[in-house]
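Intended use. Records like the one below are meant for learning the mapping from a protein sequence to its folded structure. Do not use them to infer anything beyond what is encoded.
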Amino acid sequence: MIFGIIGNTGKKNVKPVLADIITFLQDQKIEFLLQQELKKFLQVQLPKKHLCSIRTLVKHSDMIFSLGGDGTFLNTAKIVGRKQIPILGVNLGTLGFMAEVGPDEVITFINKILNNKYKVYSLCVLEAKHSGSEPIYGMNDIVIDKCSSIKMVELEIFYKGEHVIRFYADGIIVSTPTGSTGYSLSAGGNVISPYSQVFAITPICPHTLNFRPVIVPDDGEILIKTHHTGMVRITADGSPSMTYKSPTKFFIRKADYTVRVVKDIDKTYFQTLSNKLLWGADQRKR
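Structure written out for the chain above:
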């Protein structure tokens, strides 16, 4: 197995974690490839065969370590794209919901991988299209909202051709189960098991009391129309963003590929909720 290592060069603690990983892999005589930009964090000089561009790394790796936070993990998922390479997220940030392996756990987890004591889940991806433009993809969510204005946008939603609702709001979030604990949760959306075959449609500050988040099967297309005049923005996983003149239409559906994520065989989704989001914690006992 060849491990690829991609990291967020903006994380201060990437240096010691990278040193631990490389020392372990070298001691075990395990092949690995390192993102060229991480060279400046190395404490020892590596043979040139280990350093390469991200493109070369993705081409030749059997599994990729993503060193950073959830944002780094999402960026790694975009880089991997349709190649179906399993990704292990190592959390160097704060929350680390997707990148759930901590710096002090990484060597233990690599040992689990070498002993085949891990699991790989295939998680769905959203595809969003605008007429005449290339599609964009989001593992977490697609957000359509107002652009450079304090005014609300008028939105209309259709699912499988059936009218759902027309309303005013700051915007709308369409999230995958994986993304349900992100922006959608902050906007009042539901927590959804990442292995459910559904999408969540969550309004952002709707100017109505009778529209709540909606869960729909992921086998249908969601059409979102904007009716006001002005500019609207569409964003996938926080970036990239594109702006369009309203009124316009956006088509959102399940992409034709998945992202493969490496998980600890000894941890469950609800344990992660408890640890990362303080699920069920009683504040009175503090």
